[in-house]
Amino acid sequence: MTAKILLIARRLLRKQNGQIIPWVALMGTILLGIAAIVLDLGRAYIGYRELQSAADAAALAGAQNLKYSNAATITKNFSALAGSANAQAGFTSSTMLTGYPKFECLNTIKNMGVACIAPNNANAVQVIEQATIPTFFSQVFGIDQMTLSATSTAAVVGARATPMNIAIVIDTTSSMATVDSNCGNTRLNCALNGVQILLAGLSPCSPAAGTCTVTNGVASGALDQVSIFTFPNVTVGTAANDYNCGGNNPTIVPYMLPAFNATTYAPSGSGTGTYEVTGFLSDYRTSDTASSLNSSSDLSMTLGAGVKNGRNCSAMSDPGGDGTYYAGAIYAAQSALIAQYNAEGGANAVPVPQNIMIILSDGEANASASKMNSASNAAWNNNGTYPSAKDQCQQAVAAADYAKNQGTTVYSVAYGSESSGCTTDSTNMPPINQANITPCQVMSEIASGASYFYSDYNQSGSSSTCTSTGTSVTALNDIFTAVLNDLLLVRLIPNGTT
User: Fold this and answer.
1) What is the pLDDT of residues 280-335, one digit of tens each?
2) Tally of domains within the chain
3) Residue 194 within a domain
4) Residue 16: inside a domain, yes or no?
5) Measuring CA to CA, how many Å separate 222 from each of 206, 311, 316?
6) Is 265 exposed, middle or buried (0-12, 13-18, 19+ CB in 10 A)?
7) Looking at CB atoms within 10 Å, which of 230, 285, 394, 431 has the fewest?
8) Nearest to 274 by CA among 321, 320, 328, 324
9) Phi and psi torsions of 237, nearest 5°
């Protein structure tokens, strides 16, 4: 009996039928696990790229809006957070880490000439976002979700290939001779110091040009070219007194009234009035990497940063005397911008240049008819349309609207703008239709939008309450730094940049 049992056992041990089944089950489980890992990890990678793209967008938006008090909110609005512009339906949840977005003042970026600006005292922003995504096959192994994380840093930088033509219109009427104790100088000198900050961050030459070879104030391969305009206008023959370091003031004449639709601006005759102090120049710095302004440039001379024959030159003067009327100055600057744009190839240029106008004034306009040169324009009238002694503030708004319609981006800097004034504006001048408009309203409406309107209402001797709804920067130096950063590009930088 025992022998039979042993025989049957040997036969069973020799049979191979059915042994593949447990192997198939084992390998199937292993392959299913691999599939779970591959498919869920692949989905996690796609989710990570979506989260990283959202973090990049948020950081770039934050860097572009550093000048605003709500920059943190703007940053989050472009993140992957629920309800934001880059929210992802596939995320179970998404969060911004505590303490982020983080606004930083990076020395590396400062060394590139980009200052840290108020109100965040920053030139860069960093974002860290986290999100969870559900799993599918991995749930077999008890893994229900995965947590993803993405970090992104963006900063304002000066690398830009698009040329800019910048016309800066500066009020030099008698009110600009008063002292602003908050700045520690006359209002005009405070304004000119701000313009110096702007020029210190612009690029005189295209990076592709290599070296800057300057001829008559214009560099070969010029990138950013700047022209200074002023009102009241001065004679063509004495305009150079604002930058020749001769110690003499230019001679003012009644306000000239250039045609609103001109495509060039080149007044001739030594006694003729002109609003343009310097042409479009790019020699304000000797190179893109120069740490200071070129002291021999006419622009530097005009701004009080020039040196001639070993002595420092005084800045352009504030002659005043003819009241304030600046619609003509805006039309003049726009005509000069169009001429410069066309000279560079206009819409056929590669890349197409950008026209920028920056207007600094308190916004009041109240020149008497006797100070407005009717002989310069046959269409002179007194019915409330340009040119006219009536509705002068509305004419300034209409002039800026014309410039904006021609493609020019207009920044306005209200310097002590009051909530009352514009005494000539008693009628609804078409198309503005704002009788009793105020200087503050004028400066606000001149700008291309709320984010292009700045106001310094804190200077001494003024009861100004003019504030900007689009920007929170108030001190002149900070304002021009903010304008500069607005003109520059933002880009992503390595997260460890210091």
Assistant:
1) 999 998 877 777 899 999 999 999 998 888 888 888 988 877 889 999 999 999 99
2) 2
3) yes
4) no
5) 6, 29, 25
6) buried
7) 431
8) 328
9) -70, -20
Q: Looking at beta carbons, which pairs linking 32-36 to residues 24 or more positions away fall under 8 Å?
A: 32/137, 32/140, 33/140, 33/141, 35/137, 36/135, 36/136, 36/137, 36/138, 36/140, 36/141
pTM: 0.78
Q: 62 and 201: one domain?
A: no
CA dist., res. 423 & res. 392, Å (int): 9
Same domain, 360 and 429: yes
Question: Do 293 and 149 belong to one domain?
Answer: no
pLDDT tens digits, 26-61: 566 666 666 666 776 777 778 788 888 888 888 888
Q: Longest Cα pair distance anywhere in the chain, in angstroms?
A: 140
Amino acid identity of residue 190, one-letter, is C
User: In this structure, are 388 and 412 located in the same domain?
Assistant: yes
User: What is the spatial distance between Cα 258 and Cα 277, in angstroms, rounded to a whole number?
Assistant: 16
Closest C-alpha to 51, from 10, 100, 9, 88: 88
483 assigned to some structural domain = no
Q: Any idea what the Cα angle at residue 261 is, between residues 256 and 267, rounded to 5°?
A: 40
Give the pLDDT confidence score for residue 357 in this predicted structure: 98
Position 485 in a domain: no
Residue range 222-278, pLDDT digits in tens = 889 999 999 999 999 999 999 998 888 999 999 999 998 999 999 988 999 999 999
The beta-strand segments (E) located in 117-263 are: 124-134, 145-157, 164-171, 179-180, 185-186, 214-215, 218-219, 224-235
| Same-domain status, 220 and 119 | no
Return the percent helix, strand and coil in the chain, to nearest 5. Answer: 35, 20, 45
Neighbouring-strand partners of residue 130: 95, 149
Nearest Cα to 333, choosing from 242, 432, 400, 250? 400
Q: Are residues 267 and 398 in the same domain?
A: yes
Residues 396 and 442 sit within 8 Å (Cβ to Cβ): yes
Neighbours of 288 (CB within 10 A): 20
Domain boundary residue, one of 102, 125, 157: 157
Residue 174 — φ and ψ, nearest 5°?
Answer: -60, -30
| Structural domain containing residue 313 | 164-467
Q: And the tokens for 90? A: 């596939």
User: What is the β-pairing status of strands 164-171 and 124-134?
Assistant: unpaired
Token couple for 222: 């010029």
Q: How far apart are CA 76 and CA 73, in angstroms?
A: 5
CA of residue 484 relative to chain centroid, distance: 6
What is the full DSSP assignment across 48-110? HHHHHHHHHHHHHHHHHTTTSTTHHHHHHHTSSSTTSTT--TT-SEEEEPTT-SEEE--HHHH
